[in-house]
Structure to design on (115 residues):
């Protein structure tokens, strides 16, 4: 398999930056992994905060947890600024993932032309 496709597939299918590491560009791969992990951490923290808030509202009122009320609270929370942060984090992750895949392809292509 050509190095270009090998690197691109590793970065696209396993995790961004893995293709760079397979192609012996360790620092570059770690940097791309870090960028994607930052987006994932932001997304998980905000999603957890939204979920806890959605569950706390019915409990604070002394009600049992009703799924329709929780769903409505979650939709309201996602439409707020927290939802924009989560959407921004998803865009961030997607952009870095694509960038890592394209970068791994071109790094591998350089290796293919040298060999």
């Amino acid at each position: 398999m050509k190095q270009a496709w090998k690197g691109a597939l590793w970065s696209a299918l396993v995790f961004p930056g893995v293709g760079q590491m397979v192609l012996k560009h360790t620092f570059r791969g770690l940097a791309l992994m870090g960028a994607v992990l930052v987006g994932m951490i932001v997304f998980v923290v905000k999603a957890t905060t939204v979920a806890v808030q959605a569950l706390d509202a019915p409990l604070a009122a002394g009600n049992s947890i009703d799924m329709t009320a929780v769903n409505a609270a979650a939709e309201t929370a996602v439409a707020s600024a927290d939802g924009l942060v989560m959407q921004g984090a998803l865009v961030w992750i997607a952009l870095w993932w694509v960038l890592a895949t394209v970068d791994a392809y071109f790094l591998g292509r350089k290796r293919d032309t040298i060999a």
Residues 26-60 form the longest helix (35 residues). The CA atoms of residues 78 and 84 lie 7 Å apart. Residues 3-114 form one domain.
